[in-house]
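Database export, one record per block. Field names are fixed; values are copied verbatim from the stored entry.
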Amino acid sequence: MNENNFSKNDFKKNGYIILKNFFNESELNDFQESLVKLIKITLEKASKKYPDIDIDNFDGKELDEGIIKLEETDTNFIADIYDMIPTMPSFMRLTAKRELSELINSIFEREKNFPLYTFTNRCRIDPPLITRRSTQWHQEIFYTIPRSNFIQIWGPLIRDITKKNGGIEICLESHKEGIANQLCDSKLDPNRFIIDHDIVDKYEKITVELKLGDLMIFNPNLFHRSGSNVSNQVRYTNIGMFHDVEFPTFRPPQLSFKYKSGSPDEYHAEIFGTQDI
């Protein structure tokens, strides 16, 4: 991170900064290796349910053709991959990188080892020409913990992000608008909060392209949306939020789990029957 001359003034003025070569080759290779193995395992499970899936056809092609096949066959398998990645150690090592928390604390004007709360840190997966995951112009404030103060991250995990595979689009200096007027369209759930088009039209727009290893950090009020992937490859993006736990109105949400293969109580009853004490 030595080549990045980070300036809080630049962040305040522009609403974002780009850190060049923030993640090194070893960190990214570690993640890619784990991800490929996870996709292989999922393809093997899918082939048992859908015998027409020949897993040998995807050897060495898991990151693109494997994901696309799972997407076409049964999106539940993609959902499982989504839900497993955030707790993979190789992914957690990226989001928990010490230099990242220190930099975000610097923006918050906190001590470098001050506690942060991470929220919805995930690997976003965007196969080519899948439009249902596209987003409208929005701010992240209504997609996270209400009445909180946080910083967002966005960057490539497997390959460079370009205009063709869907670079992030931003409205320059739009973070200075504060909380913009937004409409709620429940038909677009989960991306249902949309900034008024008249407000969006006031700002100059650019598409941010990033090399593998780069990371973008931005203000939650910055107007943004994810571009469409019109390439022939899957886009893998590192996204997430870091909340300031000292912010007066911050309270962490209570976590809950929705079990996909039956609850622990149901599993107990399956083995031992119903037993009330």
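Remark 1: Helices lie at 8-14, 25-49, 62-73, 75-84, 89-95, 98-108, 197-200, 264-272.
Remark 2: The mean pLDDT is 93.
End of record.
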